[in-house]
């Protein structure tokens, strides 16, 4: 495929994302005329390879997962670049969208709709045996028609798989979205994605991160709050009762008791049954609402789901929570990088 690199539309830890046009395709072939191309040098190549492998396995049937059209390599300024071609989200990420609102959150109706979409994406990812492991607003993309899709599968992994990244004392993803079992036991499974979804819902609604954390304050104190004790993120009081209840199901500290994406899709916060034809006008455009078939009463606990099976990630337990947090603090070789004034640890 011939393509032309356009303007830069985003930066990640491992990559730069630009607009790519493929005029010869004219939108008629296998590729659309405009795509996003995620490019990395040799340092980020493994992440891009992992992302492509996972997206290939997830296939095309889930509308809430960003599509991958293939990859190639180029030499630019004497350096070999690895390129991944993705569906272009013209409105960027939810993180950048919220930034434009200057600290304001989104209306609850929009939060419900986006949450339902992300849950359908997570259900598909988990049903195929993967965990995303880096769900956050920066990795939820907003499309011109109001749809949202999950992106950035660079850290995704097979549930139960022990990879080089989770051997020993390491953490992956963004600390603000880390689940207690990830902090305490190095466990990264589908349950952690549900915890992260809860953090994303709080942030979408309030415009603020789920954990209050002052810039410059001690990062380890946050890890201790997440991993040790009973504290969970603050649930916004302005949220409806359904929304608050939904979040309590995401913020269950014990991953085995936390609701799954499948279970949460039956929660009334997202399983809305509007008494009109499913169209709502929102933020200047009409959105076709997808609803779950059954919107009856919400199960109130995991045991009300007859076929619910708890999936454990199978990662090894390293230490007690206290020992692990202390070892994280004392670990001399973490790869710390700073993105958007927050610390991301790889
Ligand atoms: N398909 C896309 N369409 C439009 N914008 C995109 C697309 N993919 C990524 N972006 C933009 O680029 C940013 C970085 O992309 P992405 O998160 O995939 O990169 P990354 O290197 O894996 O980053 P990180 O792991 O640090 O989050 C996103 O936050 C988003 O703003």
Automatic annotation (TrEMBL):
Binding site for ATP: 38
SUPFAM superfamilies per UniProt: Protein kinase-like (PK-like)
UniProt keyword annotation of Kinase present: yes
Keyword list, A-Z: ATP-binding, Kinase, Nucleotide-binding, Serine/threonine-protein kinase, Transferase
UniProt xrefs under Pfam families: Pkinase (PF00069)
Ranges of residues in domain Protein kinase: 3-270
Top-rank taxon, per record: Eukaryota
Gene3D superfamilies: Transferase(Phosphotransferase) domain 1
InterPro entries xrefs: Kinase-like_dom_sf, Plant_MAPKKK, Prot_kinase_dom, Protein_kinase_ATP_BS, Ser/Thr_kinase_AS
Key word Ribosomal protein present: no
Family, per entry: Belongs to the protein kinase superfamily.
Protein name stated in the entry: Mitogen-activated protein kinase kinase kinase 2-like
Lineage start: Eukaryota, Viridiplantae, Streptophyta, Embryophyta, Tracheophyta
């Amino acid at each position: 495929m011939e393509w032309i690199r356009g303007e830069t539309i985003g930066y990640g830890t491992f990559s730069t994302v630009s607009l790519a046009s493929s005029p010869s395709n004219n939108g008629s072939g296998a590729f659309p005329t405009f795509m996003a191309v995620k490019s990395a040098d040799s340092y980020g190549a493994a992440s891009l390879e992992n992302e492509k492998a996972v997206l290939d396995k997830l296939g095309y049937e889930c509308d809430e997962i960003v599509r991958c059209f293939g990859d190639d390599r180029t030499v630019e300024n004497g350096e070999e670049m690895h390129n991944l071609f993705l569906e272009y989200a013209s409105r960027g990420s939810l993180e950048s969208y919220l930034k434009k609102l200057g600290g304001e959150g989104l209306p609850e109706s929009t939060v419900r709709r986006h949450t339902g979409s992300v849950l359908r994406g997570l259900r598909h990812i988990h049903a195929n045996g993967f965990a995303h492991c880096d769900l956050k607003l920066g990795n939820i993309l907003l499309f011109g028609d109001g749809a949202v899709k999950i992106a950035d599968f660079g850290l995704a992994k097979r549930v139960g798989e022990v990879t080089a990244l989770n051997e020993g004392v390491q953490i992956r993803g963004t600390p603000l979205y880390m689940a207690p079992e990830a902090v305490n036991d190095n466990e990264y499974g589908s349950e952690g994605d549900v915890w992260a979804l809860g953090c994303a819902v709080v942030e979408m609604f309030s415009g603020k991160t789920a954990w209050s954390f002052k810039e410059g304050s001690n990062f380890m104190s946050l890890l201790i709050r997440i991993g040790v004790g009973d504290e969970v993120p603050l649930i916004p009081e302005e949220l409806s009762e359904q929304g608050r209840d939904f979040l309590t199901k995401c913020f269950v500290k014990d991953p085995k008791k936390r609701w799954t994406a499948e279970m949460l899709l039956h929660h009334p916060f997202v399983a809305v049954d509007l008494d009109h034809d499913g169209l709502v006008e929102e933020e200047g455009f009409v959105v076709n609402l997808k609803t779950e078939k059954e919107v009856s009463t919400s199960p109130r606990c995991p045991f009300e789901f007859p076929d619910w099976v708890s999936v454990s990630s199978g990662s090894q337990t390293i230490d007690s929570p206290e020992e692990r947090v202390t070892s994280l603090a004392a670990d001399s070789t973490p790869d710390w990088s700073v993105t958007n004034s927050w610390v991301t640890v790889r």
